[in-house]
Known about the structure:
The chain has 628 residues and is α/β, with parallel strands linked by helices.
Amino acid sequence: CGSDHSCYGPTNTVEHVRHVKRIQPGAPNAAYGPKAPLEWGQLNFLHTTDTHGWLEGHLKEQNYGADWGDFVTFSRRMKQTAGNMGVDLLLIDTGDLHDGNGLSDATTIDGTDSMPIFDGIEYDLLTIGNHELYISEVAYEMFNTWARKWGDRYITSNVKAFNQTSGQYEYIGATHRYFTTPKGLRVMAFGVLFDFTGNSNASQVLKAAEMVQEEWFKNAVETCEPIDVFVLFGHNPVRQTDSSNTLKLVFDEIRKVHPTTPIQILGGHSHIRDFAVYDDNSVGIESGRYCETLGWMSMTGFDASNSNFKGVKNPHGVPNPTRPARQGAKSPFVYSRRYLDWNRQTFIYHTKQTEAAFDYGSGLRVTDEVSQVREELKLGDVYGCAPQTWCISCVPFNDTSNIFPGVVLPAVSAIVVNKTREDKSRLIIGNTGAIRFDLHQGPFTYDDNFIVSPFRDAFLYIPDVPYELAKTVLPKLNSGPIAKRDLVTMPVPRDSCTDPTLGYLTRREMRQSHGVVRRQEVVTSGYVTTDDFGSDGDDTVHTGIENYALPGYFQAEVNFAEGSNPEAVDLIFVDFIESLILADLGGNYTSDMVSCYIDCDFTSQDFMLPYAKLVWQENIDNCPLAQA
Length: 628
Ligand SMILES: O=c1ccn([C@@H]2O[C@H](COP(=O)(O)O)[C@@H](O)[C@H]2O)c(=O)[nH]1
Ligand SMILES: [Zn+2]
Ligand SMILES: [Zn+2]
């Protein structure tokens, strides 16, 4: 492709990219913000998970509009505050660093440009997500570059990569880490990925049940060294009833040896805000997704009888945690948790700063790096003007404002076409999980292409499948084991927008003009979180939002004659679900009957741009953003 990305899609008849115009980063929300200061304990945690490359923040949603540079400043200020108050603060990430945003996915190898930006945060502990393991090149980057850079802070207790030099699978990061915090707490940490099986052969994932049998694990749990607190973190849901959760299994193994030592759990993968009580001395937090949420968890209860803590018990001038893990808990420990909305107003409020005084040079440099990479990757290039917002789950699956009937089905129908077979009837099947984010009204940019459909899953097909058989595939898929998406609440904003009156500014200029720009009134729309501590965890109060169930798979019927069914169809699907499709077709169909539909390089990253050029050209030079 040329640098204007104009070669995508065989049916594109619209002239190439109309213009290059940048949309604006979101301004902080003036009307709503954090409800109260954070409760600081002896041991505090700031937690990110499932960032999926969203380091630029949400450019079309003010309430999640901070960028990674803002977070660099915030995290440094919070570390300093902890130091000044005489307490510990651990910064932790639980993986899924790619797949979901142009910043991470517009390079040949995912993460080439986003990972150095992500590395601007001085995490104490990091672990690996499944999205670091689908593609071998990405897994090797984690193994050869980032694991080396992060050293013993990168913990992959059950994930190995193939070392081409030794010919062996070796742990990508450390298996565990035993360390002492600045205030003297002796911590044992494990980083455990759920029992993921979709990885390429560049890596090996040990099931948690196997991991706990490993010699190193038993030695770490049974060590004679004193342990004041376990940090059990992982790309792994914290809710015990989630079928992917394997943290509970590891928790149980630790408890056999340490019946009352606190175990602080930090999880991810299911993209929700959540907080779960495991027992009287153990709680776990999960901190959403896509740089919408920053998780906060704190605890107090360490003393000379149960630890080596040398800091301040109840730091002054701030609220302190007060809640036992559960009513009647026999434990010295009390806790707090909070889910912070990812915007500068939140960061400024919790660091007691002003807009003018907040920034550090280190943060501004990272903000500039984000702008520079966006520029280099042409992520702001506009391909169309989306006339309305289509969401994934804020309306029912069959609603015209749902992204599947509204955008995905028409887009694959129009764009996923093999010219030599265009007269054939066809069924195009995909997994709804591949569509990652709502499409907002306004300029549809190169970045939005990755935001909506980031995966490089090739379109495959089997020609001339009898329709009577082909039509049974979708219902079988949707009643099968991988059919159900998570239906729990997620903090997805619906109707915030940026100020279209601002013209082109860099992110930094935008920030400097905050004091004078006209700002639209916005309501903080998003899901309300309910967890084991109740419904008061959202740091900014949300209005509540619907979250409708989705089937696991969608299907477009194309080129069907009015009122009659075809004899046979081309059955088209993405390679991610090939084995499921073959299983549902039955034994007569095997992988040697499957081939690439357009060509093997035409993937699910490639249908949205040509569709935008085909259907959303009206108002492209004066494209209105969504109204709040
Ligand atoms: O090539 C791919 C890889 C993944 N998916 C979808 O993503 C989810 C997993 O995403 P998490 O962020 O780890 O929850 C997987 O279940 C698929 O739905 C894909 O479509 N193609
Ligand atoms: Zn994820
Ligand atoms: Zn994941």
